[in-house]
Amino acid sequence: MSEMKKYNFYGWEQADVPAVNETYNKIKTPIDLYDALSEIWCANTCAPRMRDDWSSENKTLGQCSITAFLAQDIFGGKVFGVLRPGGNYHCYNVVGDRVFDLTSEQFGDEVLDYSENPEQFREIHFAKEEKRLRYEYLKGELFRRFG
For the chain, which residues make up each domain, given as ranges? Predict the structure, then answer.
């Protein structure tokens, strides 16, 4: 058995929940999703207010909500948000007793508190047309490449 690759996103060690739908037959776990999205995340999928700071070295910057809701599509569970300075929420996933944040690397060494955070809902996030369009693009690219 080969040595398991190390990841830097929060909760990677427990990101082993199985997919609950077969739409993306090559995506079996959140780690598979992270690997796939690492090839797709780009400035166009980054939140517009952060786009000037996006780079391939910080590819998870500004990708949190669209990524968390896509992960929810595939793995079920709920999306929660850490309140950030400025009033925005940083989204992450909880499936059963598993907590993972595929886009936590954007914060570098900052440690986020993943307890007692409010649930987030796509109806609210996707009320912003640009965010819904970024999600649809991410979802479409994932299907095109890994469906």
Answer: 26-106+114-146
